[in-house]
């Protein structure tokens, strides 16, 4: 591990974002610069409205240099959901070391964990994370997964050990691959950004801000059964909560690393200046198809399943099935003073709702009022927001 | 009684007019076509078995005179064919067939809402012209919320005229040896039980518990077509490919997917993306006629839809232990610190395709010679189950075989004539500086005659090929390669003699058919013996074997 990576990991102790971008453009970058990532699999609890703490399995970001004993002492029982969003670059060598810390709440379970990079063109079954066709990582053991991604776009990762259980229990997140084209603004028609969704060759996927958002559902009976050493019949699946990055509205609009949600550190709040080109990296690791809308702002679908669309299309309702990913671009509209205006520390803004069209999924456990799979897009007056420095950055 | 039925069936087949559909020899894997233009189907009840030990009543279409099967037979016709389907009804209520995607379907029978019906015990006939190539389904058009749920469905394949190796057009050319059907269905066993017992049938209480591909639930999906222990579910769905190679293996596999279930299914292929080229029997085109195919790592197929995919598997980095190894820190994990789930694995234990590693003692391997296995499954993971047990249901495996097939090296060497000079069989593992050396006989016509023994070659392997690299201590001696024929306990010569002198010469030979004769059975199961015979001089010499290798395609 290079010192620069270590410092970056340390700076993001909240575990929102880790990855190889620190090396981008650096003098150290060799033919295949490395990204080294430490993840631990364990259990924990998250907070949802209308009930007590919900038992989960999940991943947490952990330092690579620590001993297994130190990791157990410091991180066991402290899983987060969603798991850390991983940010890597095309053609870089990615090493993900997984440590299984065991379960505080279920000491009787000896489940292994794995990491399946969902959608990756896998050259070796050894690193595919399927425990029946590869290995599983037992408690207090480690394994390093190796990937060299060549195809930019939005992917997922999740545990594949007894996956119908471990995925629902929360061992899920997004991994995205930045294109080799990143780094220069020459292709950007506006000449103001160096970031693109794909190697488009013409700047058509240039973006000013990007947000990685994982759609999911929570079937609380399954989580409760797991905590209470009972069996849940998965064909009874009928979830009560519908989440974005492991939170339900209005949790979704709290900032990253909000202290009220210590194990749900990833916000889905989208803040933008007028005219900003915003890339949504969307993925679904629930078991249901979702219909997502952003009323008032057309959504341009530029990629699907980490493949650029030959013919991007504009839609107002985006269907996204389980295991699928979409890359959506939109341009933040001008600030409209005659529309409803709210004010925060950054100034006045208009609010748009990125939400599920199926309003049964806009409720938290059936309670009245807006909840569930929704977040806000806030477009400010003027351009008060600084340039984005990491995916999904929020501004208090 | 059963024997009599079988005899009757045999008679029916024997006397069927030749224009009628004929089921060809069933391949072990891949799509099983019932080819023809005229098909005789019988709607009939039967039972399927699920991996959790349940038995579920199904209704299905069977070939007249054939056994009950679920799903119905895969009807394969050619574009432009005038197709006739006769339906006989052995159920106790009227049934019919509709052909979504076909137009101008005519027929006879008693009147029905959507199609002519065959009354209980009666018949109906349908005719149409298969005007558009593609993948389609056929299903009951009568009381579908009951009869389709009960299983009255199957796949209809229309091949382009003159081009059975195209799905549609030249852009959809595929390897005919790698054509696969993935027919998705879902089952609520309570509803089926209600039909079985005559209890009220409430479709609004649908709760799917079983999710199938080609009528089987994982892991039964991996079994060969027509295995005896799944008599009512004849279609497997193991997907097999070899790595893409522009010269040696340029053509993709064709995956014909259809969803006859009640809900949409998000299908997730591990390994590489799949390329969707058509939907509902129409190639994906832009309004201007351009290519609108798309690559996916998961794609939702709607209830009643069909989708066609081309699939090639590629290792973009061509990792190999020789010239392009994985980083040393990850290539050889210590398996003693890891777990193979339930001690039973498809893993080869190696990071490289075509290699096998050493698995921990007590771990059972299902891996033959270093091939990859990747699950292909519904990512609505509640469907990746058998009722309540995970890693079941709507899933199969992709198997990626090594590019050259399986490779075995001689594990033993035995001398038939002559004496050991130096070396052991391990010298035969690679073309290198180590040789297995045999002194010739020392009187008369000198002869060095020895054989290498191979083990672990699975029964049913095909494409056997022997490669021998060796030299002699004196110039050009005729050398012949032989293979042991277990059934007659004789050596069979493979090809003509090759002149082998003082530098290495490589010969590749394939034994004559049938190749099953050369793979031992019983106490000799999996054994193959290859003999190297050098003779034709009155001077003493030494034969020096460098490499003795066997390649084969595992079943």
Spell out the blueprint of helices and strands.
The complex is a heterodimer of chains A (396) and B (555).
Chain A: H1 3-11, E1 17-19, E2 34-46, E3 54-61, H2 68-75, E4 85-89, E5 93-100, E6 116-118, E7 142-147, E8 153-158, H3 163-168, E9 172-178, E10 209-218, H4 220-227, E11 241-244, E12 270-272, E13 277-284, E14 290-293, E15 299-304, E16 307-315, E17 317-320, E18 325-331, E19 342-344, E20 347-356, E21 374-380
Parallel strand pairs in A: 1-4, 2-5, 4-9, 10-13, 12-21
Antiparallel strand pairs in A: 2-3, 5-7, 6-8, 8-9, 10-11, 13-18, 14-17, 14-20, 15-16, 15-18, 19-20, 20-21
Chain B: H1 2-15, E1 33-35, E2 38-49, E3 55-63, E4 74-78, E5 82-89, E6 95-96, E7 106-108, E8 117-118, E9 123-129, E10 134-139, H2 144-147, E11 153-159, E12 179-187, H3 189-197, E13 210-213, E14 239-241, E15 253-259, E16 265-269, E17 274-279, E18 282-283, E19 294-296, E20 299-301, E21 306-311, H4 328-331, E22 344-345, E23 364-365, E24 372-378, E25 385-386, E26 389-390, E27 395-400, E28 406-409, E29 412-417, E30 419-422, E31 436-439, E32 446-454, E33 462-472, E34 477-485, E35 490-500, E36 505-509, E37 528-537, E38 542-553
Parallel strand pairs in B: 1-4, 2-5, 4-11, 12-15, 14-27, 22-23
Antiparallel strand pairs in B: 2-3, 5-9, 6-8, 7-9, 10-11, 12-13, 15-21, 16-20, 16-24, 17-18, 17-19, 17-21, 24-27, 25-26, 28-38, 29-32, 30-31, 31-38, 32-37, 33-36, 33-38, 34-35, 34-37
């Amino acid at each position: 591990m290079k010192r620069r990576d270590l410092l970056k990991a340390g700076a993001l102790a909240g575990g929102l974002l880790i990855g190889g971008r620190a090396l981008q453009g650096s003098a150290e970058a060799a033919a295949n610069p490395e990204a080294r990532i430490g993840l631990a699999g364990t259990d924990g609890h998250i907070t949802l409205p209308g009930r007590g703490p919900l038992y989960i399995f999940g991943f947490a970001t952990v330092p690579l240099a620590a001993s297994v004993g130190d990791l157990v002492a410091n991180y066991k029982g402290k899983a987060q959901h969603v798991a850390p969003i991983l940010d890597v670059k095309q053609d870089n060598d990615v090493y993900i070391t997984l440590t299984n810390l065991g379960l505080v709440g279920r000491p009787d379970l000896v489940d292994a964990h794995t990491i399946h990079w969902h959608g990756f063109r896998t050259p070796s079954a050894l690193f595919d994370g399927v425990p029946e066709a590869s290995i599983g990582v037992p408690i207090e053991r480690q394994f390093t997964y190796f990937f060299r991604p060549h195809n930019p776009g939005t992917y997922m990762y999740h545990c594949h050990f007894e996956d119908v259980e471990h995925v629902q229990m929360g061992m899920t997140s997004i991994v995205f691959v930045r294109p080799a084209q990143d780094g220069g603004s020459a292709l950007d028609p506006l000449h103001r950004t160096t970031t693109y969704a794909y190697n488009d060759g013409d700047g058509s996927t240039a973006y000013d801000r990007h947000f990685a958002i994982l759609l999911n559902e929570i079937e609380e009976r399954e989580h409760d059964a797991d905590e209470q050493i009972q069996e849940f019949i998965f064909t009874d699946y009928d979830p009560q909560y519908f989440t974005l990055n492991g939170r339900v509205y209005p949790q979704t609009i709290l900032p990253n690393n909000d202290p009220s949600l210590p194990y749900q550190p990833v916000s889905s709040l989208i803040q933008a200046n007028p005219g900003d080109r915003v890339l949504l990296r969307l993925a679904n690791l629930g078991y249901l198809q979702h219909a997502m809308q952003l009323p008032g702002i057309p959504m341009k679908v530029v990629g699907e399943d980490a493949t650029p669309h030959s013919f991007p299309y504009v839609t107002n309702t985006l269907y996204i099935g389980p295991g699928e990913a979409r890359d959506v671009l939109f341009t933040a509209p001008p600030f409209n003073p005659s529309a409803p205006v709210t004010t925060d520390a950054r100034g006045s803004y208009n609010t748009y709702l990125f939400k599920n069209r199926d309003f049964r999924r806009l409720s938290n456990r059936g309670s009245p009022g807006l909840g569930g799979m929704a977040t806000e897009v806030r477009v400010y007056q003027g351009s008060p927001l600084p340039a984005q420095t990491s995916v999904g950055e929020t501004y208090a | 009684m059963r024997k009599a039925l079988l005899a009757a069936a045999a008679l029916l087949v024997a006397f069927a007019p030749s224009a009628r559909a004929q089921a060809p020899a069933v391949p072990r894997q891949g799509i099983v076509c019932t080819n023809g233009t005229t098909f005789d189907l019988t709607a009939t009840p039967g039972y399927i078995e699920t991996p959790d030990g349940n038995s579920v009543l199904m209704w299905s279409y069977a070939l007249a005179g054939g056994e009950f099967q679920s799903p119905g037979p895969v009807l394969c016709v050619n574009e432009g064919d005038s197709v006739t389907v006769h339906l006989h009804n052995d159920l106790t209520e009227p049934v019919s067939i509709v052909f979504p995607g076909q137009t101008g379907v005519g027929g006879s029978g008693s009147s029905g809402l959507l199609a002519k019906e065959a009354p209980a015990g009666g018949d109906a006939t349908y005719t149409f012209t298969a005007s558009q190539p593609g993948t389609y389904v056929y299903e009951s058009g009568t009381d579908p919320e009951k009869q389709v749920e009960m299983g009255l469905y199957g796949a209809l394949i229309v091949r382009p005229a003159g081009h059975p190796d195209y799905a549609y057009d030249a852009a959809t050319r595929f390897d005919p040896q790698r054509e696969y059907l993935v027919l998705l269905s879902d089952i609520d066993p309570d509803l089926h039980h209600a039909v079985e017992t005559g209890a009220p049938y409430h479709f609004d209480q649908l709760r799917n518990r079983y999710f199938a591909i080609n009528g089987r639930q994982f892991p039964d999906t991996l079994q060969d077509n027509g295995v005896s222990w799944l008599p009512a579910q004849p279609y497997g769905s193991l997907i097999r490919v070899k790595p893409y190679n522009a010269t040696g293996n340029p053509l993709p596999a064709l995956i014909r997917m259809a969803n006859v279930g009640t809900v949409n299914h998000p299908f997730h292929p591990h390994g590489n993306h799949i390329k969707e080229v058509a939907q509902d029997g129409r190639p994906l085109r832009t309004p201007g006629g351009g290519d609108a195919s798309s690559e996916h790592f998961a794609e939702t197929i709607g209830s009643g839809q069909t989708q066609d995919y081309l699939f090639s598997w590629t290792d973009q980095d061509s990792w190999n232990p020789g010239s392009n190894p994985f980083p040393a820190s990850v290539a050889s994990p210590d398996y003693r610190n890891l777990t193979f789930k339930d001690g039973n694995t498809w893993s080869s234990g190696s990071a490289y395709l075509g290699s096998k590693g050493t698995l921990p003692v007590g771990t059972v391997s299902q891996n033959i010679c270093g091939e990859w296995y990747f699950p292909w499954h519904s990512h609505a993971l509640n469907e990746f189950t058998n009722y309540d047990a995970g890693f079941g249901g709507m899933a199969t495996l992709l198997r990626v075989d090594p590019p050259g097939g399986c490779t075995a090296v001689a594990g033993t060497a035995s001398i038939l004539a002559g004496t050991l000079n130096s070396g052991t069989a391990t010298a035969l593992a690679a073309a290198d500086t180590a040789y297995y050396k045999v002194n010739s006989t020392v009187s008369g016509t000198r002869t060095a005659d020895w054989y290498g023994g191979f083990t672990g070659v699975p029964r049913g392997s095909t494409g056997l090929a022997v490669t021998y690299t060796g030299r002699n201590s004196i110039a050009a001696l005729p050398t012949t390669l032989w293979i042991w024929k277990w059934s007659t306990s004789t050596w069979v010569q493979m090809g003509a003699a090759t002149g082998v002198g003082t530098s290495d010469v490589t010969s590749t030979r394939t034994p004559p058919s049938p190749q099953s004769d050369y793979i031992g059975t019983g106490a000799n199961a999996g054994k193959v013996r290859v003999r190297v015979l050098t003779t034709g001089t009155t001077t003493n010499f030494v034969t020096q074997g460098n490499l003795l290798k066997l390649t084969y395609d595992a079943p």
